[in-house]
């Protein structure tokens, strides 16, 4: 079976017509990680990052990004976001962001969840970049990785 691209018709990019799809509750959960130096992880853990509360700032940025996804990704539909939950966990040399997005609508929310994770991790990087820079001003140990959809479901409205 050959894959088909739903956003291309006659070699033109198009927005998929979802007008005939049912309105249902949809949920997507995505996650990703940022690799950081041990000293930076400790600053986050102890709340001593110079720019302020890393997770509070990244959480707000993530929620804003979820709501603006159709402005960033051209073929995404504007959908009613009914819930955004952003969680962070600290591990040995990484911070993991997990974002759950829900909507009641005609199309999924996985792009919104992925956008939320991406912006959360970028915001963490921005908040701690002064601690991550080496003597040349570069980031040899810092990296964002493993951004993926963990779950995408359609749910009954009950």
TrEMBL record:
It catalyses: (8S)-3',8-cyclo-7,8-dihydroguanosine 5'-triphosphate = cyclic pyranopterin phosphate + diphosphate. Substrate binds at residues 75-77, 111-112. Keywords: Lyase, Molybdenum cofactor biosynthesis. Pathway: Cofactor biosynthesis; molybdopterin biosynthesis. Residues 15-153 form the Molybdopterin cofactor biosynthesis C (MoaC) domain. It is an enzyme of class 4 (lyase). The active site is at residue 126. It comes from the Archaea. The keyword Amino-acid biosynthesis does not apply. It holds the Pfam family MoaC. Homohexamer; trimer of dimers. Catalyzes the conversion of (8S)-3',8-cyclo-7,8-dihydroguanosine 5'-triphosphate to cyclic pyranopterin monophosphate (cPMP). This is Probable cyclic pyranopterin monophosphate synthase. It comes from Methanolobus vulcani. The gene is moaC.
């Amino acid at each position: 079976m050959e894959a088909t691209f739903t956003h291309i018709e006659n070699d033109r990019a198009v927005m998929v017509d979802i007008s005939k799809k049912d309105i249902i509750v949809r949920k997507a959960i995505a996650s990703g990680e940022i690799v950081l130096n041990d000293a930076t992880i400790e600053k986050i853990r102890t709340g001593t990052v110079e720019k302020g509360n890393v997770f509070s700032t990244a959480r707000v940025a993530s929620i804003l990004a979820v709501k603006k996804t159709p402005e960033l990704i051209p073929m995404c539909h504007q959908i009613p976001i009914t819930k955004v939950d952003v969680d962070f966990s600290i591990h040995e040399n990484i911070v993991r962001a997990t974002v759950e997005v829900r909507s009641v609508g005609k199309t999924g929310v996985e792009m919104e969840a992925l956008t939320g994770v991406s912006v959360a991790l970028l915001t963490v990087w921005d908040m701690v970049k002064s601690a991550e820079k080496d003597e040349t001003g570069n980031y040899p140990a810092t990296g964002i990785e493993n951004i993926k959809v963990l779950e995408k479901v359609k749910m009954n409205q009950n």
